[in-house]
Amino acid sequence: MATAEVMVEVGFRDLFGISIVMGVMTTTMSTMLVFFYTGLEGDLVETLKMGGFCGGAVASITLVFGSWRLIEIHRGSKGVEKADTVSELRKVLSPVEAHAASLSWAGERPWRTSTHVKSERGTVTLDLHDLDLAGARKCLDLIIENRPILGRIRIVTGKGKNSRGKAVIRPMVNERLDTVARALDWQIIGKAGSITLRPLGKRPTVKQWIIRFLVFVAPFTVAMALSFEELAGSGAREQGRTFGAVAGVIMTALLASYRER
Question: Taking the complete model, does pTM exceed 0.90, yes or no?
């Protein structure tokens, strides 16, 4: 019996708590760095003020970015029924069972979707053990054909220890995926005995990018400008403020480009 996939949903209350924690951590680290830099001879109030500004900036940026991300997720999920990816993948790969049943070792080591497609630690996993090369290739072809309805998938290929001579399934999987990964926007994460397919997500449209940029630019730029103004000290406040503002605009442009997964 497959383990149910566990999804942790983060709400606005959780996000607020995360922002506070990030702010406190940044405040503590920034204050300690300033203390070490000044050799504990600086103004204590000014040092705490610098740390507070840095922590406040990080907390604000985290809260604004996270809130907008939650809004986008909630908008996108309205009216959309969440699919059971394990069941979907089992359905997609069901034609392979007929081929697997014809293998000479099927009586002792049968390959079935009910036992070889499951969820492990929150990731849908396909185990290619007990399949021959043709069966493994058929699985990959079906996954590629049905990629739009599937999310992150871990494919267990093994290390080829049970193969006669050189490993055959792992090289085939690598070669097959390398030819389609770019076109299908997959990130391939290879490990010793498995390969994980991670969707890169959809690039934002120009309209989406502009909306995100307009939402983020003011709070991000102000937070960065004030933080660097304090860090620059009394002798270079204007330069610090300018640098922070420019850094805020650049960071806003980068964050507005995140992909929908």
Answer: no
Domain ranges of the chain: 12-80+218-255, 85-199
Fold of 85-199: Ribosomal Protein S8; Chain: A, domain 1 (3.30.1370)
The residue among 49, 52, 8 whose CA lies nearest residue 27 is 52
Running DSSP on this structure, what letter comes out for residue 159? -
Reported as a single tens digit per residue, the pLDDT across 56-114 is 889 989 999 888 888 887 776 554 444 578 999 999 999 999 999 999 999 999 999 99
Of 175, 166, 84, 80, nearest in space to 136 by CA: 175
Are the C-beta atoms of 138 and 172 separated by less than 8 Å?
no
191: tokens are: 């490990």
How much is the CA Rg of the chain, to the nearest whole Å? 25
